User: Fold these one by one.
Assistant:
Number 1:
Amino acid sequence: MAGDATTIARPYAEAVFQRAVETDKLDLWSEMLALLGTAARDETLARLLASPELSRAQKAELMLEIGGGRLSEEGQNLVRLLAENGRLSVLPEIAALYEQRKAEHEGTVEVDLTTAYPLKPAQEQVLAEALKAKLGREVRIQAHEDPELIGGFRLRAGDMVIDGSVAGQLNQLAHELGL
């Protein structure tokens, strides 16, 4: 389903991105889509949005209430359009695709870095500079900790994934040994 959701979300994300560029409101759209995407990921809200008991107009109003005063007129129109087309559930994918396009436009790349232990700021800076040299773009690192990695790190930048974790090496060894 994730592939289907991405396929459905892509034209919406592209249209929003084009409009954001035209109106010079890239950051505003980032904020609105982040809010809507986070809300749509909530399990309780997702069940309500999938419920046949609510009309599409009611679902739109529910999302607009959640948005409160943080949605521009165009943001509200997007919610209504998605509700009318039964597509509110793809808001998280729309937000993610929009952020990818925005990062490309700005010449940046979002890097998801997971480490077993927290990195020191100097270590993170060295990694950011090395990635900038390799990727030819500004790098924004989102760091997370996962003690299950045991040691090392796992890095994801777009389609590139580097698993330098001890857990990843152990999994690879187990796979090679047929365990």
Number 2:
Amino acid sequence: MTTKTRQQTFLSLPNFSHKILSMKKIMFFLLAVFCFSSLKAQDLKTKNDSLSYAIGVLIGQNLKKQGFTKIDPAVFTKAIQDVTAGGTTKIDATSANKMVNDFTALEKANANKKNIEEGAAFLEKNGKRPGVVTLPSGLQYEVMTDGTGPIPTASQKVKVHYTGTLINGTVFDSSVERGEPIVFPVTGVIKGWVEALQLMKVGSKWKLFIPQNLAYGERGAGAQIGPYATLIFEVELLGIE
């Protein structure tokens, strides 16, 4: 990925939220389960066997990511048999689709609630640490190095190094690790950054603790930043462009 692409990805605040699997994909996976329920790994004798199994692995992984982790293969197999035999199913397609959608909606709601509660608890505790400043917006920062240069304005571009982490310490992005700082408009990033950058002096390095509403909110970003995630950034303001 080029520097320009990384900047565009970071600045545009894209919605990377995962789409719920369609009923068609779920049925395809169930068909794979039915066809290969009695197949053992050592019985992959033909290219078609291997390809079929590989497709099942990929779709199975996708289903697992969506939260379908308690599927009963025997019940699945019976449902596929009923459908492929042209008989009457115990649950019609419309009801089945609603059940799947209701399940995924509930799982998403539970995950969102967990992220909100954990983020709020983290910020409450973090705000009590010596050296942490909490602004009226809810943004928190800790000065690691106090610079002596000018403070950027909303109309300017800045050059920074940064490392972003989740509150559990997982690094999701880092210009430091790439060894290449980035340049972007002060107002071209998430709200927490916009506010902090207009308080920092060039040469400063701050640690930002950004509430979900000043970060990516309900959309999340990428595979690692979930909806309503509180984020931490170490930001070094290298200059004003």
